[in-house]
Amino acid sequence: MDIEFESVERIRAFQEEKLRAQIAYLAAHSPYYQRVFAEHHIDPSSIRTIDDLQRLPFTEKADLQRFNNDFLCVPKEDIIDYITTSGTLGDPVLFGCTEADLQRLAYNEHKSFACAGLRKGDILQLMTTIDKRFMAGLAYWMGIRRMGASIIRVGNGIPELQWDTIQRLHPTAIMCVPSFILRLIEYAEQHNIDYRHSSIRKIIGIGEGLRDQQFRLNLLGQRIHDKWPEVELYATYSSTEMSATFSECEHACGGHVHPELIIVEIIGDDDLPVADGQAGEIVITSLGVEGMPLLRFRTGDIAAKVTEPCACGRHSYRLTPLIGRKHNMIKLKGTTIYPPAINDVLDNTPFVGNYVVVVRTSAAGTDEVIVRISLNDKRKTADEAIKALKDHFRSRLRVAPQVEILPADVIRQINFPAKSRKPVKFIDER
Fold it and tell me: Counting C-beta atoms within 10 Å of the first and last residue's C-beta, which end of the chain has fewer, N or C?
């Protein structure tokens, strides 16, 4: 039976057995963690439970960047595929995957797609890159293959090609960054495409949230739903460092953990675990990774753990939608906000086209936020648009950033730089 449907006690015991095996593997094969155990006088065999993890130091992104090769646990000739992180917070980090790691990724995505209701016979149109050293695109492709469903590798962008593919091959599901759906809808409306009666029945989103902390559709999710109510919306959360995915089920009340693949701690500002349901930083320990496993890695992402059983029958815990990134927290005029809250306002403002949010330090040493947008509605003057958008921000966030209007092609070049695998919508210059 799938471990996710077992009792909470059985899941915990199962994870702790996996944890002991992973710790023993690190002690035997990881130069980096061998050094950590020695420097902190830790006997690896004494780490036997999830609570024991608190005795271990955290692994930081900076550690991965400084000592990248020391995390490798296998000879380089055993590496089948090389992957790098997106470099959102600095230089990209290299990860090497063995054949077993690739099969683990396929298993992870198979389970995640199944959680979102995909089955053999479905056709998934993949609107993300599968090249550029990107783990996710490769994992999605392998997961669909393992499931026995079909996949169409279209890649990101180009609404015209996406609709041509939909009309020719009739996929049942789309996987993409959710805000791109609005561009697809806009293109369909401009070209008289009856998108509401197309073959698409599910949209699986990556990289952007669709719901708030109460699991209601956020502004972006609601805008998509209002335009395209016939499709089911699913959100996922993952990262290269995790080598695992948290996917919503049909009840849309958080992303389910796959207990055989990852252990999650939620820690507060004091670096100690917070109570279930309380927001904190996500810290992960990978299970079953062969090439470059991680122990207590700080993701920088803020969310909460949900432990109540889900109506789908799974007893594994879930994560709420991300609140934001710890390092991207903004203090604007005394109010604490995260970039997703700003994006939510912009995504739900019809006259806003593409945009980028820039945060920098003012002359007074405080956070300064500049929102640069293009206009969809030419009937609005720049002054009218700025006033309306600032009023919209104040009604949602209580504070308003600076607003600048630029040509659409200028912002589009910022959103899609040559080497980027993801749209750039947030730039932190602090």
Answer: N
